Amino acid sequence: MFFLLTSFVVVAIPYVIERFGLRVRFGLFALLFWLFVFQFVLIFSIDALLQNFATSMPDLLESMLTTLGGFAFVTIGITPIITLVLAAAYLLFALGQWLFDRDEKDMPTPQRHFTVAIDGPAASGKGTLARRIAEAYGFHHLDTGLTYRAVAKVLMDQNMPLDDEFLAEKAARSVDLTKLDRAVLSAHAVGEAASKVAVMPAVRRALVAMQHSFAERPPGAVLDGRDIGTVVCPDAPVKLYITASPEARARRRYDEIRSNGGGANYEEILEDLTRRDARDMGRTDSPLKPAADAHLLDTTEMDIETAFLSAKTLIDQALAKNTH
Ligand SMILES: Nc1ncnc2c1ncn2[C@@H]1O[C@H](COP(=O)(O)OP(=O)(O)O)[C@@H](O)[C@H]1O
Ligand SMILES: Nc1ccn([C@@H]2O[C@H](COP(=O)(O)OP(=O)(O)O)[C@@H](O)[C@H]2O)c(=O)n1
């Protein structure tokens, strides 16, 4: 009797823990518990039957009952042993999991990244502001305009048409973000050609994929272009839309070219910029427009430092929100 009572306790405790203590249950201990109960009932009911009715029952039935009862009697000792072994294995497994989880919690969390998205028309000051922000915050910077310029440059260098989507997509896929040479790509004519290849969806798809993964670099990235806040990084915590009057922008581009020793005509530049704005704003795929949640910054009468300080206030607020 002592053996049966101990065995009952051994099969009942894991069953109760499994039933009421575990969130994920496989029912293994329940199975063993009810098997034990079944064996117990078999032994005692067969014993009672044989004691009272053995003389009146057919021999075959009597020997079947005796075999069954004997089998239950022999195996009832195995059930608590299996339960004990399984419970020990389960305990070891749970202990391992707990140690592993604890180690994982001690591991550094994956680095966060923060994105500043800057859009705006040609020569509004996006690139200048983006570089200043990247430098101040230690973020990576990508002038996405250079990627479209790189595609245009490949086609121009090989005398290929600028409106062949197949060729342009091939050129876009070959763009290497680490090899964008601003000095070579910043030529005025390349900007004009870039806005032509930029209307092609296949080109945009290829370049946007690269830009999107660049934006995820920790600790943060500043991207400037035409569709950063709307398409490339729609979830960026800070979005800026930089504008300036066409005249101010043409003047800046003119001064820039002249100071680099190039020849330029203000009227022609103004005309080119206006045409490029119309093409960039009028295309169907990812047209230039401010994202709904972008902060507008008109730099017509604003110097570079003031523009940076306005952006800095917004970035600091967003960073403070991000860390709390
Ligand atoms: N707020 C500003 N005031 C005056 N000049 C500016 C301002 N922002 C940028 N610039 C000048 O305008 C030119 C074009 O700026 P850039 O940043 O290259 O424009 P974008 O990237 O929008 O084409 C550069 O020579 C730059 O120094
Ligand atoms: N994210 C971007 C960036 C540039 N572009 C195209 O690429 C051209 C050149 O971009 P850019 O930023 O180098 O031009 P600028 O503003 O420096 O003159 C633009 O006129 C757009 O047509 C784009 O479509 N999407």
UniProtKB/TrEMBL annotation:
Keywords: ATP-binding, Cytoplasm, Kinase, Membrane, Nucleotide-binding, Transferase, Transmembrane, Transmembrane helix. It catalyses: dCMP + ATP = dCDP + ADP; CMP + ATP = CDP + ADP. It comes from the Bacteria. One of its GO terms (molecular function) is ATP binding. It is found in: Cytoplasm. GO terms for biological process: pyrimidine nucleotide metabolic process. It holds the Pfam family Cytidylate_kin. The chain crosses the membrane at residues 29-50, 71-100. GO terms for cellular component: cytoplasm. ATP binds at residues 120-128. Its EC number is 2.7.4.25. The keyword Methyltransferase does not apply. Residues 116-305 form the Cytidylate kinase domain. Belongs to the cytidylate kinase family. Type 1 subfamily. This is Cytidylate kinase. The gene is cmk.
